[in-house]
């Protein structure tokens, strides 16, 4: 007997393996998946400019690095004793303006190279709700705790999101024609916007994204959709799979969604390597009651042999 609804998944034509170079962009759920890629030692870069939730702000970053537009003083502002940029997450805010600009421009240069060399880009959209700076009329990625009266809140239309996603694809392909896309909608509910408003927001993302994906399919490039939101809502429809805020997936849910992802988007050979790496990671975290014992020294010797074998096979992997 089956007591839950399983979301059907088809294996991708262009799976990730240990020779792949992956870039993960988007919401906090993108970070959850990227942490799994990091744990299993795939070559992965995550949100170089920090977490970004809405499609237009992701597009703006891609457009900036594609055009190689440097960040200048007009792109930053001073608030609460730190310099910020509305297009960038507050993780990069800095008390020194020049240092902030240098950091952002270095990241932009690096991201161009990463996108040019990547085999896969995973993009996770979180919300259709955006904040627009009333002074500049620009959509911001982060408000940086600037008073809310300086912004207007809007719901992006399906047409605007669709155009933004298409632009993101076109700009990325202009840098790297052979890159593979994996899109997903974050399972995190943004109930601060309201429950009905959150559903409306997600529905705009779903409609726009699937309209775009309908137009993109070839034997060389696959534009994939991974149903992380649907898995959370249908396969894991129980609050025991949520964190304390009852909004974010907890570690069990993340592990399960990762399992569903890896079964369909990672090669079978790589799944075997993942198992070896997981054993090494667990062994590295092991703490012996008697570190000087002969048994523990043998354990460490075998562990180093396993590590050496993996690192020789995949030079980019370091433990």
Task: Describe this entry's structure for a reader.
- GO terms for molecular function: hydrolase activity, acting on ester bonds.
- Pfam families: GSCFA.
- This is GSCFA domain-containing protein.
- With 319 residues, this protein is of the alpha/beta class.
- The protein has a single domain (21-266), classed as Rossmann fold, CATH 3.40.50.
- Helix content is 45%, strand content 13%.
- It has helices at 28-39, 55-67, 97-117, 158-175, 195-214, 228-235, 251-265, 268-284, 294-313, and strands at residues 21-26, 43-46, 77-79, 82-84, 120-125, 129-133, 139-140, 151-155, 180-185, 223-225.
- Helix 1 (28-39) links the parallel strand 1 (21-26) and strand 2.
- Helix 2 runs parallel beside helix 4, helix 4 crosses helix 5 and helix 8 (268-284) packs antiparallel against helix 9.
- The model has no long low-confidence stretch (mean pLDDT 94).
């Amino acid at each position: 007997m089956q007591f839950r609804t399983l979301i059907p998944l088809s294996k991708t034509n262009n799976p990730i393996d240990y020779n792949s170079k992956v870039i993960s962009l988007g919401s906090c759920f993108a970070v959850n998946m990227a942490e799994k890629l990091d744990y299993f030692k795939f070559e992965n870069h995550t949100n170089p400019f920090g977490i970004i939730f809405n499609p237009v702000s992701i597009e703006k970053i891609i457009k900036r690095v594609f055009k190689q537009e440097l960040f200048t003083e007009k792109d930053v502002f001073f608030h609460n004793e730190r310099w910020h940029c509305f297009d960038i997450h507050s993780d990069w805010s800095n008390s020194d303006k020049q240092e902030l600009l240098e950091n952002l421009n270095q990241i932009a240069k690096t991201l161009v190279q990463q996108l040019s060399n990547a085999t896969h880009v995973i993009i996770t959209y979180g919300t259709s709700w955006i904040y627009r700076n009333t002074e500049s009329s620009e959509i911001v990625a982060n408000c940086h705790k600037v008073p809310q009266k300086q912004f207007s809140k809007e719901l992006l239309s399906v047409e605007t999101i669709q155009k933004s996603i298409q632009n993101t694809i076109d700009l990325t392909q202009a840098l790297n024609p052979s890159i593979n896309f994996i899109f997903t909608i974050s399972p995190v509910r943004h109930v601060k916007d309201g429950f009905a408003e959150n559903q409306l927001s997600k529905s705009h993302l779903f409609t726009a994204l699937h309209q775009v994906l309908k137009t993109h399919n070839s034997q060389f490039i696959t534009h994939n959709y991974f149903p992380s939101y649907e898995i959370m809502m249908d396969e894991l429809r129980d609050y025991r799979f949520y964190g304390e805020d009852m909004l974010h997936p907890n570690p069990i849910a993340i592990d399960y969604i990762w399992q569903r992802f890896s079964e369909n988007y990672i090669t079978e050979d790589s799944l075997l390597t993942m198992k070896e790496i997981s054993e090494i990671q667990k062994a590295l975290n092991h703490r012996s009651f008697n570190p000087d014992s002969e048994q523990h020294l043998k354990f460490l010797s075998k562990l180093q042999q396993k590590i050496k074998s993996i690192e020789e096979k995949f030079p980019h992997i370091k433990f």
